[in-house]
Amino acid sequence: MTLPIYVQGAWFAGAALFIFGLKGMSSPASARKGIVIAGYGMLIAIAATFLIPGLKNLALMAVALAVGGAAAWISGQKVKMTDMPQMVAIYNGMGGGAAAAIAAIEFARGDAHSTVTTILAVLGALIGAVSFTGSCVAWAKLQGVLKKAIRLPAQNAVNVLLALNAVGLGAAMVVMAPAQPELILFFFAVSLILGLIVTLPIGGADMPVVISLFNAFTGLAVGFEGYVLGNPALIIAGIVVGAAGTLLTQLMAKAMNRPLSNILFTPLVASGGGEAISGSMKEVGAIDAAAMMRYASKVIIVPGYGMAVAHAQHKVWEMTEILEEAGVEVKFAIHPVAGRMPGHMNVLLAEAGVPYDKIFDLEEINGEFGQADVALIIGANDVVNPSARTDKASPIYGMPILNADQAQNVIVIKRGKGTGYSGVENALFYTDNCRMLYGDAQPMTGEIIQHLKTMG
Amino acid sequence: MDGLLALYIFMLAAFTGYEIIAKVPVILHTPLMSGSNFIHGVVVVGSMIALGNADTVIEQAIGFFAVALGAANAAGGYVVTERMLGMFKKKEA
After folding, report:
1. CA distance B43 to A93
2. Are A248 and B22 in contact (CB under 8 A)?
3. What Å distances lie between residue A80 and A89, A286, A304, A348, B26, CA to CA?
4. Set A206, A382, A391, A405: catalytic member
5. Which residue numbers delimit the NADP transhydrogenase beta-like domain (chain A) (predicted)?
6. pLDDT in tens, B1-58
7. How confident is the model at residue A190 (pLDDT cuts 50, 70, 90)?
8. Measured between CB atoms, does B4 come within 8 Å of chain A?
9. Partner of A343 for a Cys bridge, out of A127, A363, A426, B29, CB 3.0 to 4.6 A?
10. How far is it, in rounded angstroms, from Cα A280 to Cα A62?
């Protein structure tokens, strides 16, 4: 089928705008413009598709666009920033599902394709289907619908068996093309179950990496189906995202010091491992904490997911402004995996009004803790645990951490004495220069603000 | 489509994606993941073509499903990315 030049031109323009947009999104100053540019690319590509001569089911198509688009648009407007990771997961899963469905239609039609085309259609279908069910599980876990990690006995063996099955069925579809309907159904069923079973045992802490991986998967699936349909715009967009997503996944896994193979095949065990910790936790009151920061010259705040859950970010920013007014230098230190996705904490702080030039990455700020009078840790735990540097027996050994322990004083706002997400004891809390401020992050920060105000 | 030509497109697109992400600050990783999520929402175009060529009721049903999912991917991905990026601002001088 040769397409009219205006359709091809529009798709070309769409692909170009996607790349321009993505490039724009790679710097904070131009990021907003970037997504808008990419948005225009999408509108142009969709509008042009309607103009393809001889296309059937146009009314059905318009209804589907309206239903899917509106539902996602509204839910996207409403979602809270803390819930963003699972929202990205579910939208991503839908893209994977769409790619798999395109392949399903191609198989159902049974048109003769070259072997290469069939192979790519099968691969795209497999990857897309895995991304679809896997992302749904990721959503359910982060949303709290699915509370526990479900591990089958001999989980890894089941995974491998299912994967081999899916690949075997896919190979059969290539060899026997055009495939029988039973084979097609069976292939999709096994692929969908594979995504489900692989994702179910993965814990919440590892989920961001998995979401990123599925994002890359969907990209690849879209790229492959783009080849099947002979549409370069789909190929380019899909493969760009596939490559970018793969790199992003690696960066995240590296930041957590959890090789991808570990995340997929071994759960993070909350073992009691690690050296015994000596010393005791020392409590401090809000008034003392306020005084320590008020008369400091430099304070570094380390926010964690606990701060976001307590919705304390607005209070924290209010406190920061008071301290700055009083001449204290305040910086925010963000661990790459703070929040539920890399960069998630930045989004939460940005929502509270914290300018991004006050927010620093691990590499940028780690040298500065030594000069800080106070490191204030709010709802973070594992990312400041010095055991990761020193204790080879600790499950988190080797994970890069923020060197908050090097500050003159450390104040930790924490709900209780429990361990962090990984279930590991934090040696920092027992050191001499560390004080614990027990309480919910939001009222506690409010109390500090009250005391700061009386200090003038 | 010419297989060899497609291979070149695959190669260049992969390189482009890799290069764009390689220099991105961590602060933008979440919006970028969401933004790239939006971009593969272009799958909706493929879904439309598939639905547009559908003949049987089953094909139409799957096609409808594909278009709705693709549209949701694109629309949702755009909204959440735009919302996140709209919040990033520099300190006013």
Report:
1. 12
2. no
3. 14, 29, 17, 10, 21
4. A382
5. 11-450
6. 577 888 899 999 999 999 888 877 777 888 888 999 999 999 999 999 999 999 999 9
7. very high
8. no
9. B29
10. 65
Burial of A446 per CB tally in 10 Å (0-12, 13-18, 19+): middle
Unique residue bearing structure tokens 């309907």 = A181
At which residue do the structure tokens 């008034």 appear? A287
DSSP string over A55-100 = ---HHHHHHHHHHHHHHHHHHHHH--GGGHHHHHHHHHHHHHHHHH
Token look-up 């070309």 returns A12
Residue showing tokens 């991004």:
A356
Contact status of B61 with chain A (Cβ, < 8 Å): no
Is residue A348 packed enough to be buried (19+ CB in 10 Å), middle (13-18) or exposed (0-12)?
buried
Please give the model's pTM, rounded to 2 decimal places: 0.84
pLDDT for the residue numbered A388: 85
How far apart are the C-alpha atoms of A398 and A386, rounded to whole Å? Answer: 10
A407-426 mean pLDDT:
79
Distance spanning both ends of chain A, measured CA to CA: 75
Q: In 3D, which of A116, A127, A138, A89 has the Cα closest to residue A222?
A: A127
Task: Report the phi/psi class of residue A398: left, alpha or beta, with left for phi > 0 and alpha for psi in -120 to 50.
Answer: left
Tell me the residues of chain B between 66 and 85 that have a Cβ less than 8 Å away from chain A: 66-85
Nearest to residue B33, comparing CAs of A37, A223, A212? A212
Q: In the β-sheet with A359-361, what is the strand arrangement from edge to edge?
A: A359-361, A329-334, A298-303, A374-378, A409-414, A434-438
* Residue A134 to residue A251: CA distance in whole angstroms: 21
Average pLDDT over residues A206-232: 92
Closest by Cβ to A45, choosing from B31, B45, B55: B45
Q: Which residues pair with A300 in a beta bridge?
A: A331, A375
Number of Cβ pairs closer than 8 Å across A and B? 384
Token pair belonging to A54: 């001889």
Q: Domain coordinates of chain A in residue numbers?
A: 1-78, 84-265, 286-454
Instruction: Decide if A382 is catalytic.
Output: yes
Report which DSSP code applies to B2: -
Predicted-assembly ipTM surpassing the 0.90 threshold = yes
Q: What is the DSSP letter of A229?
A: T
